[in-house]
Design a protein that fits this description.
This protein is mainly α and 341 residues long. The chain is built from 18 helices and seven strands. This is Reverse transcriptase zinc-binding domain-containing protein.
Length: 341
């Protein structure tokens, strides 16, 4: 979870740390991990970002996989997350950042970026297809940045489309001409924050800065992140209010949550229980639905008697019950599971 800070950035909190009861007495592993992650700040300045090991690794991954020199871009623009390379790798941390930013209300119509920032944006973040358009954005656009098809006019300080005879456009084959014709015809439209950089303007600061875009992220009470210091609890409540909790999670009472976090469980046990409560266990039926080419059937691979859901995987299969209860859980653990079910 991203938590706003007074440095115009964010702190990261694992969800497990956010929902942990204040009365927790024996969950040191999660506490230590949560304390470590809360010290990792997502600020606007690259030098500050790279000073922290987690964001150094994250930015290294984004730079190499997506080819962006400014690793904040994929975090700000959902269109960039589908870039080639992210699908088949373990990118849970990246997905967590994406989803959290998506929950925040934003109004990019009022953002005023400069030409230097515009030139390093992903091309797909510069325009969009309106609902009335029947055209699809070419797939190769996901691999392109604005500077691939736009050039900067230093005398008048604005960006414009490259000459159609420019040899650098040949690298992308027909994609530049398709996008250009669609923009001219109105099938594609520029994003509001990109429109003004296409018109001559007085020379201003030429440093790449995403502050105008970040400042358009707001809490649900309307306050901007750039002008308010929000606590982790305030931010957590605003995120929770933006989507409906799973039914299984809503059925767990506060008393049972307190009991759950006070249990002397190992990290693996606690992780399995929490995944079950939040509906994140990957049973065979779900895997078959997602990857039928890999998982040929949805039946339980042990008993072959019925479709394997999360409850069958952990409790209802007689052949697996003794093994799972002995290796993973203790008898009193099932009391918590029974309440969640």
């Amino acid at each position: 979870m991203l938590v706003p800070t007074n440095c115009h950035g964010y702190k990261i909190l694992f969800w497990s740390t956010c929902v942990r009861s204040k009365h927790c007495n024996d969950c040191s592993s999660i506490t230590e991990l949560g304390d470590f992650m809360t010290n990792v700040k997502f600020c606007n300045e690259i030098s500050v970002l790279d000073a922290y090991p987690v964001f150094y690794l994250l930015s290294y991954h984004l730079r190499n996989v997506n080819g962006y020199s400014h690793h904040q871009i994929p975090l700000l623009f959902p269109s960039a997350r589908r870039a080639k390379g992210l699908k088949k790798q373990r990118t849970g941390t990246v997905d967590m950042l994406y989803r959290t930013v998506d929950y925040l209300p934003k109004s990019f119509d009022e953002a005023r970026i400069n030409t230097a920032t515009a030139m390093v944006l992903p091309l797909q973040a510069a325009f969009y297809a309106p609902p009335s358009s029947t055209l699809l954005v070419p797939l190769r656009v996901q691999e392109m940045v604005v500077s691939d098809v736009f050039q900067y006019e230093a005398r008048l300080n604005f960006v414009h489309w490259k000459d159609t005879r420019d040899p650098t456009l040949l690298t992308w084959k027909r994609t530049p001409s398709t996008v250009f014709k669609s923009l001219v015809s109105g099938a594609f439209k520029f994003q509001p924050y990109f429109v003004h950089v296409c018109s001559p303007a007085p020379l201003v600061d030429s440093e790449v800065s995403f502050a105008p875009l970040v400042n358009q992220l707001r809490l649900h009470d309307g306050r901007t992140l750039g002008n308010v210091q929000a606590s982790a609890e305030t931010f957590r409540l605003s995120v929770i209010a933006s989507f409906e909790q799973p039914l299984a999670l809503r059925n767990v009472s506060a008393a049972h949550w307190e009991s759950f976090w006070s249990l002397s469980l190992t990290y693996i046990q606690r992780n399995v229980i929490y995944r079950f409560i939040t509906g994140c266990i990957p049973p065979r039926s779900r895997l078959y639905y997602m990857m039928p080419a890999v998982f040929e059937f949805s039946l339980c691979p042990v008993c072959l008697s019925c479709n394997e859901d999360a409850s069958h995987l952990l409790f209802d299969c007689p052949s697996k019950e003794k093994l799972i209860s002995k290796r993973l859980f203790c008898p009193w653990t099932f009391l918590i599971f029974g309440t969640a079910k």
